[in-house]
């Protein structure tokens, strides 16, 4: 009789322990998991680098920036300066004097294609027709409701079949190596400079791919 | 009757003739404007807008500033006019920072006139919209304001009267109560307090007597603390779900999602370096020299985009940069401990891992949060299942080195990359 009761109590006890844990687990897993705080941390100094991160503020410099500009007039090793200024005359001169140092190969074209899609197609469109996604009517729905987004002025098409003319004279489909390179480097009209995003070699690969689009 | 019907007939005739005439007129106008619109969209919008300055000046009012013949000549070949020394042309060229306008020699005079007609039409629409809308809204507002004020005044008067009456009555009853039975009130208060005390004590006694209930409550508390403690301990130093407030309300949903800008347009470092890199503000300016979102802020610059302009010291009116830039201090979300080495280019360029695999659906995030835990277990789980693509120069060299070893040739550390700076100084 006594043993029986003990067994019963054990069962009850186990049952309520399980129930308690389940309830506690459910309650403590509420929320969508997003938080404004980093939560508890142990020995934070093991997470922070000893050297400065480039994005970090820095009291050691006058302008308090870690990523300092190189001193004026210095060149990194292996770096070739672009010797053309940002003017119409220099643009024309680049068009006459500058040609691509790269050989037209499948590999270079494939890289140019990939780079064009990352850095150019947003405005110029995947085929260079000047119909990239941000030149089109579009709208967003977020916490502020649904609203239309501003369209970016569409650039002229590269393609021969569209026969668009460049604002600096001549047809878009006949822009030479140097002219395209100069435009990537300095930007023009609504287009900004893409020199910080593309290395010289990458710029020439893009130029090579643009020539392919011009033929269409 | 006949008179009336003939009169009606005449009226119908004149009306239909009038309608046809009107239709013809609007048709001819619509034709011009419509062709002008297609031409404008394909040839002009790269640099011009009707209502605001883009690269070239705003076109509204251009027919008042110049006569049509002159405009046709200018649009066909502005550089020829400047070369010929047309004073207005030279002045206009200089006013706009000597920016060359595309020559449109392929357009006929009629086509250009259609474009001018379209611009005039848009100009009229733009002038109408804010003025008309404003007047209507103003009228509606003032009407609303009148009724609102009258109703409000009446409501205040009624409320004041009611308050006065109620307060009077309250004062009178209070005076009565105080005068009649102050002692009774004190006694009643004392009794009330003891009753409350008794109730709480009774409840506590009942709770303590019920051993099962006490046991269950203690168990619940222990279980809850255990689960919470377990979770907390496992998540020490794990920032999954961390969503800090950033200095600029930059929405990845708009930029990467709706605008379909590829991740590497801004985070190009992910292709070539250890760090995926936060873009410097000149990358923002590639688009935001033009995009100001002003239509959502009554023609003013968006306050969030103004923060970029402040950071790069850009003046949107003169389109010129000053020399007092102030960097934007973004809050770092993904922070791998300094004792763990991680390289973006190894994963993105070599392995071809999609950004979303680790960072989650960033293109749908209005505010970015840390999607993955970035724990060692998480890294290892993926490394256990990922197959390596051996079709690259690294493995070619490795196999070559093994072949040499098999032949009995000697191999130095320098031959397998032992002289690379980064092997020691990373």
List the helices and strands and how they pair.
The complex is a heterodimer of chains A (216) and B (426).
Chain A (H helix, E strand, L loop, with lengths): L1 H27 L59 H10 L8 H14 L1 H4 L13 E5 L2 E5 L27 H10 L13 H15 L2
Antiparallel strand pairs in A: 1-2
Chain B lengths: L1 H42 L18 H4 L2 H9 L1 H7 L2 H9 L13 H72 L1 H28 L1 H24 L17 H7 L4 H4 L2 H4 L8 H8 L14 H10 L1 E2 L4 E2 L22 H7 L4 H5 L16 H10 L7 H14 L14 H4 L2
Antiparallel strand pairs in B: 1-2
Protein model, in words:
The complex is a heterodimer of chains A (216) and B (426). With 216 residues, chain A is mostly helical. Chain A has a domain at 88-138 and 149-214: Cytochrome Bc1 Complex, Chain D, domain 2, CATH 1.10.760.10. Chain A is built from 6 helices and 2 strands; from the N terminus they run H-H-H-H-E-E-H-H. In chain A, strands 1-2 form a two-stranded antiparallel ribbon. Chain A is elongated. Chain B has 426 residues and is mainly α. Chain B folds into 4 domains: 27-128, Orthogonal Bundle (Cytochrome Bc1 Complex, Chain D, domain 2), CATH 1.10.760.10; 182-234, no CATH class; 252-396, no CATH class; 397-426, no CATH class. Chain B has helices spanning 2-43, 62-65, 68-76, 78-84, 87-95, 109-180, 182-209, 211-234, 252-258, 263-266, 269-272, 281-288, 303-312, 344-350, 355-359, 376-385, 393-406, 421-424, and strands spanning 314-315, 320-321. Chain B has a two-stranded antiparallel sheet. In chain B, a hairpin with a 4-residue loop joins strand 1 and strand 2. In chain B, helix 1 crosses helix 6, helix 4 packs across helix 5 and helix 12 packs across helix 13. The longest helix of chain B is centred in the middle third of the chain and has 72 residues, at 109-180. Chain B is flat. The relative contact order of chain B is 0.05. Residues 20-28 and 131-143 of chain B have low confidence and may be disordered. Chains A and B meet through helix 1, helix 3, strand 1 and strand 2 of A and helix 8, helix 9 and helix 12 of B. Chain A: Residues 107-214 form the Cytochrome c domain. Chain A: Keywords: Heme, Iron, Metal-binding, Signal. Chain A: Residues 127-172 are annotated as: Disordered. Chain A: Residues 1-24 form the signal peptide. Chain A: This is Cytochrome c domain-containing protein.
């Amino acid at each position: 009789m006594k043993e029986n009761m003990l067994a019963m109590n054990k069962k009850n006890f186990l049952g309520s322990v399980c129930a308690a844990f389940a309830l506690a687990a459910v309650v403590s897993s509420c929320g969508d998991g997003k938080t404004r705080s980093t939560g508890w941390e142990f020995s934070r100094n093991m997470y922070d680098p000893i050297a400065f991160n480039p994005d970090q503020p820095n009291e050691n410099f006058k302008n308090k920036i870690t990523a300092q500009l190189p001193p004026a007039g210095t060149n990194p090793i292996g770096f070739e300066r672009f010797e053309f200024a940002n003017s119409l005359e220099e643009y024309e001169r680049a068009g006459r004097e500058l040609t691509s140092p790269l050989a037209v190969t499948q590999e270079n074209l494939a890289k140019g294609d990939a780079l064009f899609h990352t850095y150019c197609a947003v405005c110029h469109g995947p085929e260079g027709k000047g119909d990239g996604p941000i030149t089109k009517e579009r709208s967003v729905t977020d916490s502020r409701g649904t609203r239309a987004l501003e369209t970016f002025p569409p650039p002229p098409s590269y393609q021969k079949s569209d026969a668009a003319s460049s604002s600096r004279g001549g047809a878009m489909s006949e822009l030479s190596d140097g002219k395209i390179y100069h435009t990537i480097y300095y930007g023009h009209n609504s287009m900004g400079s893409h020199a910080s995003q593309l290395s010289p070699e990458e710029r020439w690969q893009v130029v090579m791919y643009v020539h392919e689009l011009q033929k269409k | 009757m006949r008179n009336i019907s003939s009169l009606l007939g005449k009226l119908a005739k004149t009306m239909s003739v009038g309608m046809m005439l009107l239709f013809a007129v609007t048709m001819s106008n619509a034709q011009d404007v419509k062709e002008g619109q297609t031409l404008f969209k394909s040839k002009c919008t790269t640099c011009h807008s009707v209502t605001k300055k883009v690269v070239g000046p705003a076109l509204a009012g251009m027919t008042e500033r110049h006569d049509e013949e002159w405009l046709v000549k200018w649009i066909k070949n502005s550089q020829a006019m400047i070369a010929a020394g047309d004073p207005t042309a030279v002045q206009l060229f200089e006013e706009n920072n000597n920016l060359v306008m595309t020559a449109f020699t392929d357009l006929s005079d009629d086509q250009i006139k259609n474009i001018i007609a379209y611009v005039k039409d848009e100009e009229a629409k733009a002038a109408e919209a804010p003025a008309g809308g404003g007047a209507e809204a103003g009228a509606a507002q003032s009407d609303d304001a009148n009724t609102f004020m009258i109703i409000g005044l009446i409501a205040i008067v009624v409320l004041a009267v009611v308050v006065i009456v109620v307060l009077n009555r309250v004062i009178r009853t209070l005076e009565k109560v105080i005068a009649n039975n102050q002692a009774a009130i004190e006694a009643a208060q004392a009794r009330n307090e003891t009753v409350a005390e008794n109730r709480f004590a009774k409840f506590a006694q009942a709770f303590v007597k019920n051993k099962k209930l006490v046991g269950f409550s203690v168990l619940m508390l222990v279980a809850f603390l255990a689960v919470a403690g377990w979770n907390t301990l496992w998540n020490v130093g794990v920032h999954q779900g961390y969503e800090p407030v950033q200095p600029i309300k930059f929405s990845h949903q708009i930029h990467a999602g709706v605008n379909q800008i590829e991740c590497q347009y801004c985070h190009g470092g992910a292709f070539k370096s250890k760090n995926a890199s936060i873009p410097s503000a000149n990358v923002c300016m590639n688009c935001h020299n033009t995009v100001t979102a002003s239509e959502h802020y009554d023609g003013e610059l968006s306050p969030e985009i103004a923060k970029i302009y402040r950071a790069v010291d850009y003046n949107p009116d003169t389109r010129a940069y000053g020399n007092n830039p102030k960097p934007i201090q973004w809050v770092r979300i993904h922070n791998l401990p300094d004792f763990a080495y991680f390289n973006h280019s190894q994963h993105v360029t070599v392995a071809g891992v999609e950004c979303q695999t680790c960072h989650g659906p960033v293109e749908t995030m209005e505010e970015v949060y840390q999607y993955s835990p970035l724990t060692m277990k998480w890294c290892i789980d993926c490394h256990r299942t990922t197959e390596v693509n051996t079709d690259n120069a690294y493995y070619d060299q490795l196999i070559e080195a093994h072949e040499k070893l098999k032949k009995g040739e000697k191999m130095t550390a320098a031959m397998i990359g032992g002289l690379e700076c980064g092997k020691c100084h990373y």
